Amino acid sequence: MNSSIRAHFPILHQNVNGKPLVYFDNAATSQKPLAVINAIKDYYEQYNSNIHRGAHHLAQLATEKYEDARKTVAQHLNASEREINFVRGTTEAVNLVASTYGRQNVKAGDEIIVSEMEHHSNIVPWQMLCEDKGATLRVIPITDSGEIIFEEYLKLLSEKTKIVSIAYISNALGTIHPVKEVIREAHKVGAVVFIDGAQALPHKKVDVKDLDCDFLGFSGHKVFAGTGIGILYGKEKLLEAMPPYMGGGEMIKSVSFAGTTYNDLPYKFEAGTPHIEGGISLGVALNYINEIGLDKIAAYEDELLQYGTHKFSEVEGLRIVGTAKEKASVISFLVNDIHPYDLGVLLNQQGIAIRTGHHCCQPLMDRLKIEGTCRASFAFYNTKEEIDVTVNALKRAIKVLS
Ligand code: PMP
Fold this sequence. Notes:
Blueprint: H1 2-6, E1 15-16, E2 19-20, E3 22-23, H2 34-47, H3 57-77, E4 84-87, H4 90-105, E5 111-115, H5 124-133, E6 136-140, H6 150-156, E7 161-167, H7 179-188, E8 192-196, H8 208-211, E9 215-219, E10 230-234, H9 236-241, E11 252-256, E12 259-262, H10 276-292, H11 294-313, E13 318-321, E14 330-335, H12 340-349, E15 352-353, E16 355-357, H13 362-368, E17 373-377, H14 384-401
Parallel strand pairs: 3-15, 5-6, 5-7, 7-8, 8-9
Antiparallel strand pairs: 1-2, 4-10, 9-10, 11-12, 13-14, 14-17, 16-17
Helix pairs in contact: 2-10, 3-10, 4-5, 11-14, 12-14
The structure holds 4'-deoxy-4'-aminopyridoxal-5'-phosphate.
């Protein structure tokens, strides 16, 4: 699919340190197609205006485009527009649910379950809530290959469980968790489930009705839109019953010193002037990937994963960390006792961008008894040739560092 697709991404066509850029840091943030870049430019050149309250032409246009983006997101997730809340990203989505649903429903003695391989943003807000309420955070253990141990999860579930929060796909290892089964079992004990969709949305079709998740958060910047925008999906009846998150303009129906009434969904959770061009860019990005086709994207990325896994494994001394049966296009690895950062620096000298470190998953690194990994993560605009270039550069770097 590649040469025509790559032409949509201007940033890919540059040299770094005298070599053609190989961008393998897509799990941290993805690059933006011209459609998204132009949408942001058009917003500022043609109709920049505050939304929802203006009678004038520009305000109407901006409102229309922003609300169109909400419709696109709703359709993409198979949700209703009332269930789609614009937030800053996955981190804010988790914090919003912890501070509203959590504050309202979790009490002393209750339990919240996460997995051992969550991103810090899907751990710390729940820890804060537990501290505040006298509740306990329980942790689903994982295997050495990076899969949750389902029987152990079942043992953790009880009538004390109020919330289960788990990533659909691990950013550090690429594991695709069996979230549908996780959700089904949590519901049997009356718990609600938050799905961290940050790594899932760029790679696969996510249908919230089919999953039956109660909440789902994701970040625009990982799904080819701008930064600082994301989505919290919540089931309407849960969102209706939750207290607001932040107070301010937009989230109210009326304000007086005698008391304030809150706005209807989804505005109840959208205080203040939002990230207007970010929201618009998210709608454009989702339309863009839908035009290519998520099935096609998933199949091609799987091909890159298989090819990359094979090629990387051939490098002497290289060990892939995270070998789950179901994986997205992420290869985490270590080479002998070389520090990941040193490899990252040498690859950068060859124009290759990978990520090194704990990937915001320190508890996972503790479990695996490592400090961190090198991580190459692929998007649909990457190629097998780039994998070959990287493998050759790795071999050279290893020689220098050994
Ligand atoms: N969860 C996962 C699985 C992630 O990969 C990330 C980003 N690395 C986050 C949460 C946090 O996303 P953001 O920083 O965009 O809020």
